[in-house]
Design a protein that fits this description.
- The structure is a single chain.
- The chain has 214 residues and is α+β, with helices and mostly antiparallel strands.
- It has three domains: 1-48 and 171-214, Glutaredoxin; 59-101, no CATH class; 104-170.
- The protein has eight helices and six strands.
- It has helices spanning 16-35, 61-69, 72-87, 105-117, 120-135, 144-153, 158-161, 196-209; strands at residues 3-11, 39-47, 59-60, 100-101, 181-184, 188-191.
- It has a four-stranded mixed β-sheet with strand order 2-1-5-6. Strands 3-4 form a two-stranded antiparallel ribbon.
- A hairpin with a 3-residue loop joins strand 5 (181-184) and strand 6.
- Helix 5 packs across helix 6 (144-153).
- The longest helix has 20 residues, at 16-35.
- Residues 7-170 form the DSBA-like thioredoxin domain.
Amino acid sequence: MKRKLNIDVFFDFICPWCLIGKRQLQAAINQLHRSDPDVEVKLLWHGVQLIPQLPVEGVPFQAFYLKRLGSATSVRMRQAQVRQAANTVGVDIDFDRIKRMPNTAKAHHLLENALKIGHPEQCDLLLERLFAAYFHHSEDIGDTAVLLKIAEFCGFSAEILGNGLDEPFISADTGGNGVPYFIFDGCSALAGAHPAEVLYKTMLDVLATQGLVT
């Protein structure tokens, strides 16, 4: 009989730490599958719009970060820090290629629609493709045409996933913890892109607390 572990994941597409955290989480899940193969992990994705005040069409990426951090030196230092962390999980982020800081409301609506009808593997493919579109391919994930093209690539109906993209988006509440944010079976939480070993240990602790560790 399968044991179950639910993990709520709070994220935004423009947050590189969320992509890094997703990689760390998957590594932790793989480790759990090796040590406890009878545990079924279910991921519950919750969209958080970090910068809802961005215009619908987005803003120039480099200008946004220059204004946000105050100097070109600060921008280079922050991006170098992120690149280093990303490289440890096999992710290469070229910030120079990213042209726009998008408003992510439409992307979150798209994924929400997909989660209602798609199987987990297909939804994960869509999530991965949306991250890749932004961080690797310099695509504007605030653009409806771009989003629908990605949806079709992942095997979804553009007509179905395109429903309600222009509606206001209500971000999930992390209680001020930012993203990425993980809640394990509703009883233990971690904020930030923690190493896989920390996530794995948290899973084991939660299973043990519930009497589900063999």
